[in-house]
Amino acid sequence: MCVCPGPRRIAIPVRSSRLPLLSDAMPAPAHLFPLIRNCEISRIGSTVCYCHHKHLCCLSSHFAHSHFRYAPQKKFAALYRPKEHFNHFIHTRDYASTPQRFYLTPSQVNSILKANEYSFKVPEFDGKNVSSVLGFDSNQLPANAPIEDRRSAATCLQTRGMLLGVFDGHAGCACAQAVSERLFYYIAVSLLPHETLLEIENAVESGRALLPILQWHKHPNDYFSKEASKLYFNSLRTYWQELIDLNSGETTDVREALINAFKRLDNDISLEAQVGDPNSFLNYLVLRVAFSGATACVAHVDGIDLHIANTGDSRAMLGVQEEDGSWSAVNLSYDHNAQNEREVERVKMEHPKSEEKSLVKQDRLLGLLMPFRAFGDVKFKWSIELQKRVVESGPDQLNDNEYTKFIPPNYFTPPYLTAEPEVIHHKLRPQDKFLVLATDGLWETMHRQDVARIVGEYLTGVHHQQPIAVGGYKVTLGQMHGLLTERRARISSVFEDQNAATHLIRHAVGNNEFGTVDHERLSKMLSLPEELARMYRDDITIIVVQFNSHVIGAYQNEEL
Amino acid sequence: MFLRLLSDIQWRAAHPKWRRMTSSQRSTSTTAEPHPVSLPAQAQVVICGGGIMGTSVAYHLSKMGLKDIVLLEQGRLAAGTTRFCAGIVSTARPMSVELKMAHYSNKLYQQLEQETGVQTGYMKTGSISLAQTQDRLISLKRIASSLNVMGIPCEIISPKEVLQFHPLINVHDLVGAMYVPEDALVSSANVSLALATAASRNGVQIHERTCVSHVTIQKGRVTGVETDRGRIQCEYFVNCAGQWAYELGHSGEEPVHIPLHACEHFYLLTHPLKEPLSSSLPTIVDPDGRIYIRNWQGGILSGGFEKNPKPLFTEGRNQLEIQNLQEDWDHFGPLLGALLRRMPGLEALQIMQLVNCPESFTPDMRCIMGESPTARGYFVLAGMNSAGISYGGGAGKYLAEWIVNGYPSENVWPLDLKRFGALQSSRTFLRHRVMEVMPLMCDLKVPRWDFQTGRQLRTSPLYDRLDAQGARWMEKHGFERVKYFVPPGSDLLDLDHSKTFYKPDWFDIVGSEVKCCKEAVCVIDMSSFTKFEISSTGDQALESLQYLFSNDLDVPVGHVVHTGMLNEKGGYENDCSIARLSKRSFFMISPTDQQVHCWTWLKNRLPDDSNLVMEDVTWKYTALNLIGPRAVDVLSELSYAPMTAEHFPSLFCKEMSVGYANGIRVMSITHTGEPGFVLYIPIEYALHVYNEVMNMGQKYGIRNAGYYALRSLRIEKFFAFWGQDLDAFTTPMECGREFQVKLDKGVEFLGQEALWEQKQNGVYKRFTMFILEDHDTDMDLWPWWGEPIFRNGRYVGKTTSSAYSYTLERHVCLGFVHHFDEKTGEELVVTTDFINQGEYEIDIAGQRFQAKAKLYPFSSLFTQRRRKDEVELSGYQRE
């Protein structure tokens, strides 16, 4: 029943800051009451009971996280076994014998799927879009509550190009949130020519209005932290001041700019946490940012130059339409995890041979962390002394937190983790129709080839379904009927969505064994209570960028 | 194609002479080779099209003794739609004339093999129509009732009994079925070839690979046919070109409008089952699943009528022979689903082929036959709506009779080409309409169904005004007419849910409109009626009309005369009202769908005299019917003229002013038997007069009303309407309208002789009114039309129309009573005593209701307002 392969998820307490999304759309939820307290999580799927009094259950703390594995489980769980819950569970036992089948209607499913969808079309001038990007669709579907994924998209205003990124947080959403707010500024600043940097610095110095650097394309649910903006700005300013001082006079290389921006931001996150802030809220915030982590997969599109900077296990994939109209997928990033041999090699190279065995255990860094590169996660970067000092001098909340106090085992030669991205440069061709950036929530459930086909067919509105011809083959009525049903389902699911990312999520969550959306399955998956949702799926965040083949074709001709 | 291969061999074996003629062409494919037999320079009849229709017409014409017949086929015989036909001969048709055609076809095909020696594959398998819903079962029961009285065996069976006839059927979702044991299967191409063989033996010349380019017409008559192999002079031309009939009709200088359009039609062929299906297994029709299934060479053949048909050849594309069109499995998917649901055991059955074959459909689901209104001698038989093989024999017979005798032996008005005009000839209209028609083949046929596509073509100038007041519309001959007005605030069911065989949701709405007609005054827009003006410089108009109409038209100026336009046999070709506007001009009002037929009838019979002018003025006038006792008051207030009976007697016509508008033709008729007037208003005044009438009428309680109210009123008054009750086989004597015939008017008129004879010898059928006695309006099925009438338990005829009478609070059915000899079945004279002395029952979907027969309407319905002078003036009791 549980799709998680083995007991790899671990319970990390995270404060719930907003109402779970699912419950908004569920009119009469027969809520599942989880027994996560003190048993192996992998067993949970089969030991659930139904409860109709959701408001009584929602006190339960939030569990489950994808990237971590936390050893002293029992001790930890004992702390989080509120008595009332247990009583309540007993009280509602009689419901368990008659579990009600509860499905969402198609429109309820749609309202859940579409709650976070966002589309942006690059504006046309004189009826022409001169950008190589037509626009993008993005969406996210939470599994954690609150969701730990973030997404960002912005157009660079002082240089050309567009930035898009997905960020997968772990151990809370603080780091992902901070990276999603700040990273693009660091990248944009890295790309700015010397004169513009000077101009900006002068403007700040003399209190004049700043040149706008980025134009954000945000969904109303994507928020920026107001409280930290001053702090973040100061760090950014320090960065560009250093850039001005460093003035190399050379034109900025995008690859270098991306790498510098990633590293600099991670460095700033680390420094801010070490320095702290007089404001207690901010002080706690910067610590939470530093102690949580986030992966990042960022695309920079400028004309036909596409750069992907990736840190962690989110992925960028290019959708290519072959001459025969079919779709294929080209990877534009490498996952930084245990499945990537080069990455394992790199980690081993950076540490003494004595640690070779303890470095990667159970496919995790130090047996704990799934991604091998990430922002934040100072527990894998700072020395033990530094960690202890910061935690001890930090606010009480930090001290009470079991996780932050916990030092990874076999922790000898930090840092074990880096935020340095791997950058891939790709020259866009007319056959490159779209780019998919997505967190591992998508890639866990779908093969990239299917992603390419589903998005390709969605965007072109054409289903490259060859008309069926029986010809000389032996086909039975039943086989034909099955085939036709499947083809019909594929087409009908396309018409429901106005957003490619939504469409992809629909498939990722609702696909049956035929690769077509099964409403019943979709409905079941979406009506899972937040405590259980994480068992069946991860947060999914997707950005689909659609390219303008005409413009790309014209660029190509120019270059030739 | 194996079907074709099979038939070729048989055809040539059966007819060696034919082989000699054509073997050289067949050996090579399409290269033009010299034709061994040259075309004749002239013939009496040229038939274009060698499918089932063309060969059937040739067969019947030659049987009737015509010798000089040429049949031209652009490709090869039976190579078009006929080749792909599923070959099901089914008599289960809702309409009487279609049922008769199918019945005749079945009998014809049965003996064809014996007659010609050509194997037709005829197999009497029977057919079972399944009902998944109670409504479907009702419609099957209605068909069963009419089949039984025709002497065609037929029974309603339970789902369990279905299993006994066909082992593979899943019956769990069925509520019943209809079994017709005599329905048959044939190889349609072979039937066509057999008919050709017989025709050829009877002297019909058949030429394949001869393409008709156009038909030459001079002075409104067919003179010849131009082909790619030369010209043939002829007297009659028969267009049996199937889906190309429309294009052929438009190929000449003078277009002949044949409104039909092709759609793709799919059926599936499978390999034989492990245990091959018996060839005697009955055909299954599952209309709720939209499919039919027949046994085919040990496997099955299954096709259907999908909800989303694919029209094709809209832009016209003539093809010699239909090459196999692309199979579209995705399109066929839902039908395949229905098939597997009906016969789940077939899952493992292997597919042989999905056949895609274009079928032609017509705007009203009925086939097209008859003579062109614009070209005499130009006949058409096409647009079979996928029932070509069922109708082929009967339709060919009727058309042959039409050519030879001038009229077929049955009333074929529902199929007559002249029910259409140029207005149904738009390709866009046809494309849209056939997309609605094709799914309807399987949809439930409920009373008062209106087509939804191709609407709002002809409208009254008041359309928007009426629509804003809640009008619900129906369409007749392209014209929008109001059914009833939905009062603000009341909700009717949506289209799909309003389909019922029981009491409809508008019952109370129409009831209140009727009540208003009876007690106050209502306005009905009747602009759709066909209006002609006939005038002459001398007395030609009067003389001609006196000959063409049975009543005496030599009345004082300002009088209105109800009269029949009769044929030689005294039958009604039209039933109309004629007003004498002046000594030399007449204004004629006919039913809406008479526009083409009546025009043609008169045009063909009026003398060719430039001083005699006939004009169609339908479009010039808006007609408002003011019905009710207070119509007098409204009109007199608006015109400052006395409108009482003394000044404006019944059946009178006067031009006067209404409101500010002058020149309004006011007639004291209402088409319902109620007091009131019809105003014929030049269209630019229509809105003004309507507004004035509505404003003035307010204090008299005026309201809008629609045709459903009119219908209820006229039927309770025993008024026959042409097209529903009256047809070319009904004489005034048979429907109690002797008073509209002036046998002694001193002028000879058409049909006079036949009527004399009837007057002396009596009539063989009699129009009778039935009041249902034990019928519960709320609970029981409503009568519609076509219900069998039983007298003392014996079948005597069918109803032609019915309505609920709000005054009698009973259902009223109108219909004809025959007198069949109990032993011989011979038709005997129907006397008043015969009618009056019977105990009657009306069969509604198998359930019989007691009915009281009346030859005259209830006098109580003509209460105090009925004036004695009016009765005397009109000379009859019914208006």
TrEMBL record, chain A:
<feature type="domain" description="PPM-type phosphatase">
    <location>
        <begin position="133"/>
        <end position="547"/>
    </location>
</feature>
<keyword id="KW-0496">Mitochondrion</keyword>
<comment type="similarity">
    <text>Belongs to the PP2C family.</text>
</comment>
<keyword id="KW-0479">Metal-binding</keyword>
<keyword id="KW-0460">Magnesium</keyword>
<keyword id="KW-0007">Acetylation</keyword>
<keyword id="KW-0809">Transit peptide</keyword>
<dbReference type="GO" id="GO:0046872">
    <property type="term" value="F:metal ion binding"/>
</dbReference>
<comment type="function">
    <text>Mitochondrial enzyme that catalyzes the dephosphorylation and concomitant reactivation of the alpha subunit of the E1 component of the pyruvate dehydrogenase complex (PDC), thereby stimulating the conversion of pyruvate into acetyl-CoA.</text>
</comment>
<keyword id="KW-0904">Protein phosphatase</keyword>
<dbReference type="Pfam" id="PF00481">
    <property type="entry name" value="PP2C"/>
</dbReference>
<dbReference type="InterPro" id="IPR015655">
    <property type="entry name" value="PP2C"/>
</dbReference>
<keyword id="KW-0106">Calcium</keyword>
<dbReference type="InterPro" id="IPR036457">
    <property type="entry name" value="PPM-type-like_dom_sf"/>
</dbReference>
<dbReference type="GO" id="GO:0004741">
    <property type="term" value="F:[pyruvate dehydrogenase (acetyl-transferring)]-phosphatase activity"/>
</dbReference>
<keyword id="KW-0378">Hydrolase</keyword>
<comment type="subunit">
    <text>Heterodimer of a catalytic (PDP1) and a regulatory (PDPR) subunit.</text>
</comment>
<dbReference type="InterPro" id="IPR001932">
    <property type="entry name" value="PPM-type_phosphatase-like_dom"/>
</dbReference>
<protein>
    <recommendedName>
        <fullName>[Pyruvate dehydrogenase [acetyl-transferring]]-phosphatase 1, mitochondrial</fullName>
        <ecNumber>3.1.3.43</ecNumber>
    </recommendedName>
</protein>
<dbReference type="InterPro" id="IPR000222">
    <property type="entry name" value="PP2C_BS"/>
</dbReference>
<dbReference type="GO" id="GO:0005739">
    <property type="term" value="C:mitochondrion"/>
</dbReference>
Automatic annotation (TrEMBL), chain B:
<protein>
    <recommendedName>
        <fullName>Pyruvate dehydrogenase phosphatase regulatory subunit, mitochondrial</fullName>
    </recommendedName>
</protein>
<comment type="similarity">
    <text>Belongs to the GcvT family.</text>
</comment>
<comment type="subunit">
    <text>Heterodimer of a catalytic (PDP1) and a regulatory (PDPR) subunit.</text>
</comment>
<dbReference type="InterPro" id="IPR006076">
    <property type="entry name" value="FAD-dep_OxRdtase"/>
</dbReference>
<dbReference type="InterPro" id="IPR032503">
    <property type="entry name" value="FAO_M"/>
</dbReference>
<feature type="domain" description="Rhodanese">
    <location>
        <begin position="45"/>
        <end position="88"/>
    </location>
</feature>
<dbReference type="Pfam" id="PF01266">
    <property type="entry name" value="DAO"/>
</dbReference>
<dbReference type="Pfam" id="PF01571">
    <property type="entry name" value="GCV_T"/>
</dbReference>
<comment type="function">
    <text>Decreases the sensitivity of PDP1 to magnesium ions, and this inhibition is reversed by the polyamine spermine.</text>
</comment>
<keyword id="KW-0496">Mitochondrion</keyword>
<dbReference type="InterPro" id="IPR013977">
    <property type="entry name" value="GcvT_C"/>
</dbReference>
<dbReference type="InterPro" id="IPR028896">
    <property type="entry name" value="GcvT/YgfZ/DmdA"/>
</dbReference>
<dbReference type="InterPro" id="IPR029043">
    <property type="entry name" value="GcvT/YgfZ_C"/>
</dbReference>
<dbReference type="Pfam" id="PF16350">
    <property type="entry name" value="FAO_M"/>
</dbReference>
<dbReference type="InterPro" id="IPR001763">
    <property type="entry name" value="Rhodanese-like_dom"/>
</dbReference>
<dbReference type="InterPro" id="IPR036188">
    <property type="entry name" value="FAD/NAD-bd_sf"/>
</dbReference>
<dbReference type="InterPro" id="IPR027266">
    <property type="entry name" value="TrmE/GcvT-like"/>
</dbReference>
<dbReference type="GO" id="GO:0005759">
    <property type="term" value="C:mitochondrial matrix"/>
</dbReference>
<keyword id="KW-0809">Transit peptide</keyword>
<dbReference type="Pfam" id="PF08669">
    <property type="entry name" value="GCV_T_C"/>
</dbReference>
<dbReference type="InterPro" id="IPR006222">
    <property type="entry name" value="GCVT_N"/>
</dbReference>
